[in-house]
Design goal:
This protein has 29 helices and 8 strands. The protein has about 675 residues and is mostly helical. A 6-stranded mixed beta sheet has the order 1-6-2-5-4-3, sandwiched between helices. Helix 16 (about 370-400) runs antiparallel to helix 17. The two termini are about 65 Å apart.
Length: about 675
């Protein structure tokens, strides 16, 4: 019996029972009691707990539904696992460039590939027989485009059928090493954890079942994509996969694994293939020069050449098959520039799957790929403009509700904190390269900062009014204690307590004349603005640390010109909100005390500010990707799929071949656009 099936049946039964009890019994009874009806007899004195019970039942039902959504695909059933492996491998074969070429050309099959065991002269077209003879362990060697991945998938399908007919035969699974990266020293179990995660993600094999099957050697692991692992991590990766791998595809041999070489295509196979597509490739044979014949020895080269010159009169053929194919696929498209730039950006990401639409990874993976201009606009235009907009909006809200003096204190303190906090996060970042541009970016940043500042101001005013119903003495004690801890985080050095006590004494003395409530009202605004400003500064600093040193140096070229004066100048505009009344100096003191939290919120190691700054850093950087990937990402992915540059498997896009990805990653977009127009 499948344990996961029993668990899932119990989960679904519990979900159905909860929904039935809630909808049929509890919800009608709760509505009846709320509208003045009688309490049902079976509930008795627990009638007042009906709505909380309904809420609890709904939360449990939602939790079970989410569990079913997340874990419902898992299985420990051998039959179900084999079915999923077969489905995915067939989908990979159908989405390959070779299969797409067969559809476009109308041919029945690709040339039959042969393999040769290292040290032997006779090649064999039967990879399964070679696999059996070598004891179910080998490395499949061949250059990029030689058909290694296709042979591996075909072998997997044969092993699936064998496992279906023989209960003692292990289950084959194909995993792609492109999803694994080694960074520094790893524990021996980490590769196992990645392997179990891939088996669960790709084939729905539960981790508990996968662990048992690996331990009992009930799984055959077929490894693809070893060449995608960085060279500095290759040796470590090979040592990690050695205990699990049965067949590995690679461009070179691996220690302790028998080498099986994929044979290149013969001239007879190429001519037979061209003849099978007659008359659509009739002019191709006469254009094959000795130089072209030398390169035309792999299925990839043959497919690219056929797709590039299909139904065309061929006079000469270039030796760059990949480049010619990309140009032919993108020719005739209006506005090919954004598409080419987006494909280059996706290719440089180096991800095996791209999602639909593209799910951007962490900024460390793609921010260093951006040109200097969007980064310069972010740091030199958008960041100071957003800060100025936030200061202006908060100053306006403060002056409007609390008076001119609190707003003035806020502008002066916020401008000073900008120099103290932001300068430490972004040294010399406000140096533009000579000429002033990016006004639109600055205006948009100012508007975004103003909107955020209005929200921060509203939150601060709400915080300041929380203590209104508190007793006088309790409010006084709270203000003094809060001031002490805010000052404790603000003052640098090893002995901040005496200074913190001195600062905390200031509101204690002032409250004798002003009362605690006005001070607390100012502290609410200052605290809200200080937290927001500190998190914003920390987020921008995190983004700056992600930028490559070369990008930073290019942004520092040109004459120094500080943008910080825009903050107090535009903040002074916000003082117009306080022209009606001067306000209380006790409130102004509260604003200054609340702003003491800014350095604490800007630190990278204080929870929860560190987590919030990381979220804010991701939010700040996401718009930068729009220069490379527009909002029409899904349309772009569909277009690239139609042009055979991308394929789609299980809802994820990937490049049709690693050679296409590498070519697009290294191409010159401007030259490629010119080539597509010719």
């Amino acid at each position: 019996m499948d344990p996961s099936g029993v668990t899932r049946a119990a989960r679904l039964t519990a979900l159905a029972a909860l929904c039935l009890v809630t909808v049929v019994l509890l919800l009608p009874a709760a509505i009846s009691v709320s509208t003045g009806g009688p309490v049902p007899g079976f509930i008795g004195e627990f009638g007042r707990w009906l709505w909380p019970l309904v809420g609890a039942m709904v939360l449990v039902a939602v939790g079970l539904a989410i569990w079913e959504r997340v874990r419902g695909h898992e299985t420990s059933s051998r039959t179900a696992a084999l079915a999923r492996v077969e489905t995915r491998v067939k989908a990979l074969l159908a989405a390959s460039l070779a299969a797409q070429t067969q559809i476009k050309l109308g041919v029945l099959q690709q040339p039959k590939l042969a393999v040769r065991v290292d040290g032997e002269e006779v090649s064999s077209p039967d990879l399964v027989a070679v696999y059996e003879r070598l004891g179910h362990s080998m490395v499949l060697i061949g250059p990029i485009g030689s058909g290694r991945s296709t042979l591996l998938r075909e072998l997997c399908l044969v092993l699936v059928e064998r496992a279906r007919n023989d209960p003692d035969a292990p289950i084959p699974v194909i995993v792609d090493l492109a999803t694994w990266r080694a960074y520094g020293t790893r524990k021996p179990t980490e590769f196992t954890a990645w392997l179990l995660r891939e088996m669960n993600r790709r084939y729905g094999i539960s981790r508990s079942a996968g662990t048992i099957w690996l331990r009992r050697e009930r799984v055959i692991v077929l490894i693809d994509g070893l060449d995608e692992v960085p060279r500095v991590d290759r040796a470590h990766c090979e040592s990690e996969l050695a205990p699990f791998a049965s067949v590995v595809t690679s461009t070179g041999p691996i220690e302790n694994l028998p080498s099986v070489h994929v044979e290149p295509l013969s001239r007879g196979q190429v001519l037979e293939y061209i003849a099978s597509v007659s008359p659509r490739l009739d002019s191709l044979e006469s254009a094959l020069t000795p130089e072209i014949w030398e390169k035309l020895d792999s299925p990839l080269a043959l497919n690219l050449l056929a797709l590039t010159h299909l139904d065309k009169q061929v006079d000469t053929i270039g030796t760059d098959f990949v480049g010619s194919f990309v140009v032919e696929r993108l020719s005739g498209q209006r506005g090919a520039g954004p598409t080419i730039r987006a494909l280059k950006f996706l290719a440089r990401l180096g991800r095996p799957d791209l999602g639909a639409p593209v799910h951007m990874p962490h900024r460390r993976a793609w921010l260093p790929l951006l040109p200097t201009r969007p980064l310069w606009l972010l740091f030199v235009r958008a960041v100071p403009a957003a800060y100025a907009g936030g200061v202006c909006a908060v100053a306006f809200m403060t002056g409007l509700r609390l008076g001119l003096w609190p707003a003035l204190v806020f502008v002066v303190a916020a401008s000073s904190l900008l120099v103290m906090v932001m300068a430490n996060k972004l040294p010399h970042v406000f140096h533009p390269p000579g000429r002033a541009h990016g006004i639109v970016t600055a205006v948009m940043g100012f508007i975004a900062g103003a909107i955020a500042g209005l929200m921060v101001g509203l939150v601060g005013l709400w915080l300041g009014e929380i203590g209104t119903p508190w007793p006088y003495f309790v409010t006084c004690v709270f203000v003094v204690i809060a001031s002490f801890f805010l000052a404790l985080g603000f003052i640098p050095g090893d002995a901040p307590v005496p200074w913190a006590l001195l600062i905390a004494a200031a509101p204690g003395v002032s409250m004798i004349w002003t009362g605690p409530y006005v001070v607390l009202a100012g502290m609410g605004v200052g605290f809200s603005a200080g937290v927001a400003g500190g998190i914003f500064a920390a987020a921008v600093g995190r983004v700056w640390r992600t930028v490559r040193p070369g990008q930073q140096q290019r942004m520092r070229l040109g004459r120094p010109w500080w943008v910080q004066p825009a903050v107090p100048v535009l903040g002074a505009v916000g003082l117009l909100g306080g022209m009606g009344t001067l306000g209380s100096w006790g409130t102004a003191l509260g604003v200054a005390l609340g702003l003491l939290v800014t350095p604490t919120a800007a630190r990278d190691y204080v929870w929860p500010f560190d987590a919030l700054s990381e979220v804010a850093a991701e939010g700040v950087t996401r718009p930068l990707s729009l220069g490379e990937l527009s909002f029409r990402r899904k349309a772009l992915l569909h277009l690239a799929q139609d042009r055979l540059l991308l394929t789609r498997v299980d809802g994820e896009y990937r490049f049709a071949h690693v050679a296409l990805r590498d070519h697009l990653a290294s191409c010159d977009p401007t030259a490629l656009v010119r080539a597509t127009r010719r």
